[in-house]
């Protein structure tokens, strides 16, 4: 089968679906319209499904031949961002919301995959589960979906995911061996001092001065305590203290940020040291500090055998020169990591850049867009990956 040609047969349908999602972005778990559209599509195609993680969906296509099960995942949520692009017909119709990360394209691609695979069930050596995930941009629906059993009944043996990339030309993909994305741990700190008049600082305990010292000290956690050959980032996202009064020492100050690491041991070390450093620095300044460190997305790992198999099929489908092996991981996080922690997985980047069309703007920006010629390419890759993976697993 020519998978690219097969996917291009539904190009107009893919574009219409993607533009509809783009015009009606929804956030987090509040994906009632988006979820309803996906469920309506699956029902019209005769594909069974059930709801999970509030507005998430798990669908299944059962092959004629019994065997293993492969999962394919797409995220559905948008971002709280005002779209400013004025020269396209499918501008967001909801103020302050925008599909600025390509999840509209991801959902569309998985719907296209569902349509194509459902029409070739007799050729499948097993089953394909389709995971439509909510809230990837916030807390991550993947973890809840897994807890609710989407990887069982039937047991999922491998999972495949993609993300659009404005840094890679349309028609190409990027894929990395090993660690693909960082793990993250958001944190918040409350520093308790003692309020006083600004003219008499000795009568109080200044939490703002303590906060400033803590911010500076935390920068050494990465620069001096984690190996320089191991990627790690510590970002302070906010520091709040006081009111508009310029002559008042406040009672407390608040700091918030996030740690990103690539290795499990660095992640655990950074959490431990952050708490120690903050509490020690606060005590030295006669303040008290309460530290809350959240458990967020883990690292995303590409399984070696899945990586090699996918790279080979992609080179066959797109030609070798259009498959880019990426050298460096991303310090960004990705909730597909939860799937990669549970099953052998592969995750890759689908090129959507097109300089001639002006599609060059970064994700999470108000001008972001994708070249829609990438949609059938994504469908073809996911279909071929599902078919080949099931066949390969059934031969083991």
UniProtKB/TrEMBL annotation:
Keywords: Hydrolase, Manganese, Metal-binding. GO terms for molecular function: metal ion binding; N-acetyldiaminopimelate deacetylase activity. Its cofactor is Mn(2+). It is an enzyme of class 3 (hydrolase). InterPro entries: Amidohydrolase, Bact_exopeptidase_dim_dom, Peptidase_M20, Peptidase_M20_dimer. This is N-acetylcysteine deacetylase. Its EC number is 3.5.1.-. The gene is scmP_2. The Mn(2+) ion enhances activity. Pfam families: M20_dimer (PF07687), Peptidase_M20 (PF01546). GO terms for biological process: diaminopimelate biosynthetic process. The lineage of its organism: Bacteria, Bacillati, Bacillota, Clostridia, Eubacteriales. Mn(2+) binds at residues 101, 103, 137, 163, 364.
